[in-house]
User: Fold this.
Amino acid sequence: LLQGSWGLGFLMSSLAYGLLYEHIGWRGLLILGVLPALAVVWIRIYVKEPKVWVENRRIQREQHKEFKAPLLDIFRPRILSNTLTACLWMASSFVIYYSVYGMFATHLQKDLHLGAAMVAMPIALANLVAFLASGFWGFVADIFGRRWAMIIPAAIGALVTPFYLIPDSYPVVAGAFILQGAFLGAIYGQNPSYLTERFPTEVRATASGFCYHQGAIWAGFTGPVLTYFAAGQPLGFAIPMLIGTSAAAVVFVITLLFSPETKGKELVPQLTLVESAA
Assistant:
């Protein structure tokens, strides 16, 4: 639910676009986007550090063994394979995200020539479905494992993709995209748990931050690349989006099949890499 809550933010932004765009334009919408940043003040004051992190710091200080791992430690031979598959998993998931959500509004505007309200409606509802489905797939993760709770919706989502890109019937397109929220829209709920469980204590934060954000960097090319190929297509964005989404979903599934399963793993404050090296 924590990670899936981005869908609620996307839902509200879609509503703002559908209801206010004609009145305040993009500048007004961007000003609205500044307001949620004020929540950082509340978070900084009231949200506490994780208990495992606090206990780890206490142990290090008591033993006078404060430890700071450099970034290069996540590329040590013992965890190199884990780091690389985590990077590929995150990169493919971000490409899926931008191929599905980042370009869909443009597809509706440029290819189907729809107005603000008709563009906003399926995107808003898809994000509501994604939020609800994130809780469901979290339940699946606790029963069958983290990987299968992402592999299953990714595989189903790849099959759903053509149904909102190829047809030109608005009810079919909107309905299929809303359904996609339950699958490719909900594969991100495991990110916090699975990323943190994959790495030992001393590099957990470093590895999670690096693997996550390098994925966002690679996915940043999704928009320009898909737009480049869409310019010469009779169907516009439909085929490039279909190829981008499907290819990234295949990489996503294959990467997870070769990644470690972490269901049931307990996060501990001990420094496992340092202890084993000693």
Summary: The first helix runs from residue 6 to 34.
